[in-house]
Design goal:
five-stranded parallel β-sheet, 48% helix, single chain, 482 residues, four-stranded mixed β-sheet
Length: 482
């Protein structure tokens, strides 16, 4: 009696595509693979069955944990613990031909593992490999072309009146392309915004009131002026649906409270914000623009010009307050800000006392080169993490990890040396007398009533880094640098 032939060890890799309507389930794929393996004289142990979670894309191998584990197991010893990898279709292995060639080369040449598709049998030899490559090329073409087909399908759906975008504030999705339905929890926000604007309240104060009431946007953010403007101008609230330039009359529910005021609100917005009424913005509205910041939130103070200079002067105000993002005003008149800054300069020149931070100037070429080196150093750190992950995941051997680590260490050392040479070329720190001389020159420019704003702005920025206005304590803190 002859002994029964020993069975070879195989493995199975299974991934379910969400865009293939003829796709077999994971259990069905495994059943077909096990039957084919048994017919070939192979047995597939449970530990060599690699099944991805449903919906994982085949475009990027690095995003497939079971695929990476399968490669790691194949490379874990010589020879590989399994002799053949079974797939239901070649597209399950990869839908990126470049990655497919790379990983198949690892399995076939480095691990001596054969690869077989049970639903797409090909002959042995180079001609079979050619057929396999053609199949993979068609799979990749299908994957790339699918996105275009999806857009065409969505366009056709929109032309037929289908709902497919995200619902706006006040509505929620009903699913399956059905008309959106009103969300009773958030629609009161929409009604308040439209009604308040119709009653004369401006967008900034509406945003501020929404935040005071604890309301939040669909993304969980606080309201600001532009959020209110989007809700006011969104014609979905009067029944119109817009998707990718296609407009149709929807069948979703609308409320009379918004319909009654919507068009009047559009007219008011057009009158208040039409381009002809907007003021021209100069390159430098004031020489303090951009330097003054809010002591409450750190945002810049924007300059607001008054319509009646005799009754009220121009002011600087926190832009977040102007947008309705935070409730506390942090304004200061332009005249008071100018006087406080000049007083600070005079005090320094009279006493000679000054605390400052030295920030060396660099020419643009040197600064650009330093930034490139720092970016390259960041990339080295990313590479270090990747090679460590590849080693810990079993994809690279210890020898491969050591070689890659040594190569990156040498690259990092060379970049650090280049950065050190650039920093060593920094000019010496100026002494106190030199800095006081610079401040004196700036003060003379700022005190000259005939000097234009742009010249004054450039002058003060040569010695002042930031000016913080804290209205509750009525303090103006200036931060100098040389």
């Amino acid at each position: 009696m002859q002994p029964a032939p020993s069975l070879e060890i195989g493995a199975a890799y299974i991934r379910v595509s969400t865009d293939d309507q003829t796709e077999l389930s994971p259990d069905a794929q495994l059943r077909v693979i096990l039957e084919a393996a048994k017919a070939d004289g192979f047995v597939i142990p449970r530990e060599f069955v690699f099944i991805e979670e449903k919906g994982i894309s085949g475009r990027k191998a690095q995003n497939r944990p079971q695929f990476q584990r399968m490669i790691a197991v194949a490379k874990s010893q010589q020879p590989s613990p399994f002799k053949r990898l079974y797939l239901w279709k070649f597209s399950r292995f990869a839908r990126n031909q470049e990655e497919s060639v790379f990983y198949k080369s690892i399995l076939r040449k480095k691990c001596d593992v054969d690869i077989k598709s049970v639903s797409e049998p090909v002959m042995e030899g180079m001609f079979g490999r050619l057929i396999e490559s053609i199949i993979e090329w068609f799979d990749e073409y299908y994957s790339v072309n699918l996105s275009g087909e999806v857009i065409r399908g969505m366009t056709e759906k929109a032309l037929r009146g289908g709902y497919q975008s995200s619902p706006c504030t006040g509505y929620r999705s009903a699913g399956e392309g059905k008309p959106f339905v009103i969300d009773p929890d958030s629609y009161p926000i929409v009604e308040y915004i439209h009604t308040a604007y119709h009653n004369g309240l401006d967008m900034t104060n509406i945003a501020r009131e929404c935040n005071r009431r604890g309301w939040r946007t669909r993304r969980g953010n606080i309201f600001e002026r532009r959020t209110v403007q989007r809700i006011l101008s969104n014609r979905f609230y009067i029944g119109e649906v817009t998707w990718n330039g296609i407009i149709f009359q929807g069948t979703h529910e609308v409320r009379q409270s918004v319909l009654d005021v919507f068009e009047d609100n559009q007219k008011r917005m057009e009158q208040e914000y039409r381009p002809s009424r907007r003021r021209d913005v100069s390159a430098c509205r004031h020489w303090l623009s951009g330097l003054l910041v809010c002591g409450t939130c750190g945002a810049s103070l924007a300059m607001s010009r008054t319509n009646n200079p005799k009754r009220r002067s121009d002011t600087f105000q926190c832009w977040k307050y102007l947008k309705g993002i935070h409730p506390d005003s942090n304004s200061i008149s332009v005249l008071k800000a100018e006087k406080a800054v000049l007083d600070s300069f005079r005090q320094i020149l009279d006493t000679g006392e000054l605390e400052y931070e030295y920030i060396p100037r660099q020419d643009e070429a040197a600064a650009g080169e330093a930034q490139l080196i720092k970016t390259a150093l960041d990339r080295v750190q990313t590479k270090k993490k990747r090679i460590r992950d590849a080693y810990e995941g079993g994809i690279d051997s210890l020898e491969e990890y050591k070689a890659n680590k040594q190569r990156l260490a040498a690259e990092e050392e060379e970049l650090q040396n280049s950065l050190s040479r650039l920093e060593a070329a920094t000019p010496p720190t100026p002494d106190k007398n030199e800095i006081l001389g610079r401040i004196r020159n700036v003060y003379q420019i700022l005190s000259d009533p005939d000097m234009d704003y742009e010249t004054k702005g450039s002058a003060i920025r040569s010695v002042v880094r930031q000016i913080v206005w804290d209205r509750p304590t009525l303090t103006l803190n200036m931060f100098y640098y040389a």
